[in-house]
Amino acid sequence: DLKEKGKRIDEDSDGFFRAGMPFIFTYGLLYNIRTNGTRSLCVPHNMIGRILEALHDEKQYFADERMLYDLRRLSIHNKTYHVKEYV
């Protein structure tokens, strides 16, 4: 159980961090903890299309570089591939 093996890292969250696993589960959301200590929200595979569609339609992007820049704070497996396929 992660709660038993992990340690509390934030007084304002119910999240726990386990050594060797750069992730934290906080208030029902999974975050990746980057090497600089910042957190990025992990996007489930089944939500990637919706995220890309919403971002593309809202800002009407035509270049993948700009979409990747705006998605920089999200953890998406194979992010560059998904963006290039969408655009």
Helix tally? 4
How many angstroms does the end-to-end distance come to? 41 Å
Which series of helices and strands comes N to C? HEEEEEHHEH
Quote the average pLDDT. 80
Strands ordered across the widest β-sheet: 1-2-3-4-5-6
Helix-residue proportion: 25-40%
Oligomerization:
single chain
Radius of gyration: 15 Å
Measured by DSSP, the beta-strand proportion falls in: 25-35%
Structural class determined from secondary elements: alpha+beta
The shape, in one word, is elongated
Number of strands: 6
How does the major sheet shape up? 6 strands, mixed
Q: Detail the poorly predicted runs.
A: 1-8
Q: List the domain count as a whole number.
A: 2
What is the structure about, briefly put?
The chain has 87 residues and is of the alpha+beta class. Helix content is 36%, strand content 25%. It has helices spanning 2-5, 48-59, 64-70, 79-86, and strands spanning 7-8, 16-18, 21-26, 29-33, 39-42, 74-75.
What report would you give on this structure?
The protein is elongated. The protein is 36% helix and 25% strand. The longest helix has 12 residues. By secondary structure, the protein is α+β, with helices and mostly antiparallel strands. The N terminus is likely disordered. It has a six-stranded mixed β-sheet. The protein has four helices and six strands, in the order H-E-E-E-E-E-H-H-E-H. It folds into two domains: 41 residues, no CATH class; 42 residues. The chain starts with a helix and ends with a helix.
